[in-house]
């Protein structure tokens, strides 16, 4: 999506705490939509579930109305990379579905995404999802005071390389805070030791998008839906991460957690 603000803003621990409340709402949306992503469930049903959880958490959707986006969440099945608009489409056995959710609490945003298989999928598809999620966590592990965005992007990109996946370059992560999309841009590629220097008090959303085929994308006539040019499957994982003196803290979990307390795929 487009970046709204070019200034890198510094957050206080109190600001991070509010972002973590938004993030816990996002985590609740993830849990509910993951459970509901079964054959026969429509994408509009996933959207309705998400809207209800936002209400329960006293949050608003970051996406609804954003540059005119017409829904609560993005729901991106199969060859859709990102920004899918929830529709009447009913999930089928063998699909994959990416859910991207953003919540606003007292003006502060949390933004995160995951991809899940619907029923049984081919081993190469399971691997695409696992590797994309691992790339996210490898990127998060680099999000420390004094490191650079090239370190983050390189860690993400290198995770894809042995598998030959298309690493999407047209869409990238972003700073986040009072705006969903703030500076800096957070690419899923980079050169170690190069790029913007991270500092305590920053928050970034890291969001690898890996494709089974080409990295090239197209946008459908609805102006939103981004698909792979070759029609092959695409996976997307994202978390909102705070740069703290104790290291990277993931804000879009049920409770905020330092990455150093978690295993290499974010499990407690
Ligand atoms: Mg994002």
Summarize the structure.
The chain is an alpha+beta fold and 268 residues long. It has helices spanning 13-36, 43-56, 123-141, 149-160, and strands spanning 60-61, 74-77, 80-82, 96-105, 108-117, 166-167, 173-175, 182-186, 203-206, 209-211, 217-219, 226-228, 234-236, 239-244, 247-250, 257-258.
The number of helical runs is 4
Structural class: alpha+beta
What is the level-2 CATH architecture name? Answer: Alpha-Beta Complex
Task: Describe the global form.
Answer: globular
Percentage of residues in helical conformation: 25-40%
What are the low-pLDDT stretches, counting only 5+ consecutive residues below 50?
Answer: none
Query: What do the pLDDT scores average to?
Result: 96
CATH superfamily: Creatinase/methionine aminopeptidase superfamily
Describe the structure in your own words.
The chain is α+β, with helices and mostly antiparallel strands and 268 residues long. It is built from 4 helices and 16 strands. A hairpin with a 2-residue loop joins β14 and β15. α1 packs antiparallel against α2. The chain is globular, with a radius of gyration of 17 Å. The site of magnesium ion has 5 residues, from loops. Magnesium ion binds next to loops.
